[in-house]
Structure formats: structure tokens, C-alpha cells
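Thread title: Can someone regenerate the structure for this chain?

I was given the following input by a collaborator and told the matching C-alpha cells would be attached. They weren't. Posting the sequence so someone can regenerate them.
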Amino acid sequence: MARYFITGGGTGGHIYPAIAVADALAKDGHELYYVGNPRNLEYEIVKQKGYKFLGVNVHGMPRRADFALIKWGFELCLAVLKACYYILKYKPDAVFGTGGYVSAPALIGAKLLKVPYMMHDCDAQPGLVTRKLASSAKAVSVAFECACKVINNKNCHVNGNPIRAEFKTLTKEEARARLGLENKLTLCIMGGSQGAKSINDAAAEALKNLDMQVIFQTGKKNYDSLAQKLTERENLIVKPYFDDMVTVLKACDIAVSRSGSLSISEICASGIAPIFVPYPHAAGDHQRKNAKFMVEKGAGIYLEDSEINGKTLCDAVNSVIANLDELQNNSLALAKFDGVEKIVEQLKNEL
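Best answer:
Regenerated them for you:
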């Protein structure tokens, strides 16, 4: 059996694809070590899964050329040295990274020490780490076909995002039963694991005029104030965060969401008609590009963050309802359920 380092963190879009690949490798009996930042979300998720965690202290690169950038560069160098130490100590056969700043130390360490590595990038516009390190990777996996155009690697595969296996098997009826919901039109509102104030505020107003079941993920910061506003709302499940987003999404017909790539992949796998509200400050404007891709495929609509309010959101939901079957079918047609299997096969082939 082989030994793998898996790395990626900071946001769910980097963590959950890495975990999906780790789960598949572990199921085959391979030995795994997860390299991430112990201060980030990946630490708790990896610990829950029972995988060995190797910590590196790194955060996102500052956008301005000042002292903070110098400090960050020093921090990255130390993180790379620590990753090299882990590689020399545990001797992985290969490294798999999902891009983003958390994966940079382990991937740079693998490059320096001549350990084969494979990357996966989840966005229509690949991130800085992917663009800089892809040329030396044994293979690169992407979620969107257009991403291959900006990646300098001939061994580039369009696999879609790795998603959890239950998206293939759980039915809408089973998901609703788990949540204690009726079998009727259901709306999901989510602004990512941290929540999104613009979406939350607009949704709180829009729900006064929408008669349907609602699952609302608010994020921790906004939960208390929103829960108070919505106390009289029936057919509502509201939580700061859902550990089991598979069940939540599979229970829904419509979603209001940011347009991170993993969210898009899971929405498609659930056959949901989406309303995207791209995060306006996303690196490389990748969320807007992701959302526009979906709109071009007839698989969703989107509102700018600056435009969303109770009325525009209510109008958008009603527009989706009027075209529900078409949007759901187009969304489901874009789903790729075999991303994990393809990535694992490609990763093993490069050893």
C-alpha cells in the first residue's frame, strides 16, 4: 500500500474535495497524512475523520506590497521548511493538493524534494497556487473545462469536483424525512460556512412573501439576530451551520448560494435550481466567473451582491419557480459523480 500526503484548507471548497479523495484512498487501505493549518476548519474536520494531521502555520497572501507581505513571505518559508521536514520524516509516495494557500507549503516541499504531486483546482479561474505549481505536477485535475486553458500542464483532466458518495444515493424523500420536512417545495439559503450578511438580510425580508419550506444556514455571526426575526416563521429550519450538507441539499428544490465551485458541484449533484450571489471580493473574481458559467449553461440565475434585497430575491425565487423543471434538469446534467474515482485513478497512475 502507498503512503499519501493530502493537503488543502481554509475553506470548505478546498477541504471537502481533499477529504473525499482521502476517504477513497483510505477505503483502499492506503496510509494518509493530512497537511493543514491547525487554526483552520480543516483541523476539526480531519480530526473527526481520524486521519493523522500535520500542522503548518500559513495564511493567505496579503494583497498590498508592505511589511505584511514581507512577514507573510517569511512565514511561508518556515511553513515550507516544516513541510519538507514532514516529507523527509514520513516519506510519502505522492502528495495531493486542492490548491489555495494552505496547500502551498506541502506542494512546494514536494517539488523541492522531487516527490510526485497532483493538484486539483475547483474554480473556472484557477488560483495562484495552482497556476504557479501546475507545471511541475504529474497531473492536474480541474472542475471546469475552461480552466485547462490557463494551466501549463499537458496532463490536465476535467474531472469535476470530488463530492461525497451519498450525493449519488440519497433520495429527496429520504433527505426530507431525515430533517422532519414534508414532501413539498423546499428552499435552501446558504452563504457558505461563515454565512453572508447580504444574503441573510435579503432572505429575512423575502421569506415574509414566500410560502414554502425553508432550510437556512446563517453562519455563526448572524445566527442570533436572524433566529429572533424568524421565530414566527413556520416550515423553517434555521442553524448557524449544518455538518451534513448532503442531506440539506438533497432535500431542496431551489438554493440561494454563493458561487464557490464546491457549492456549485454539490448543487448540481442534488439537481437543484440555483440563484447565485457571487462573493464580490473573491480572489481573481472566480465566484462571478463560476456563476456566469452556470448561467450560460441554462442551469441557474445570479444576482450581484450589491443588488440583492428582499424584493430582488423574492422576484428571483419566483422566476426560478416559473422555470423550475428546466433549471433543475440543466443543473443535474452538469453533475459529475465520478470525480473522486477519476482523481484517485490518475493519482495512482502517476506513482
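The chain has a mean pLDDT of 92.
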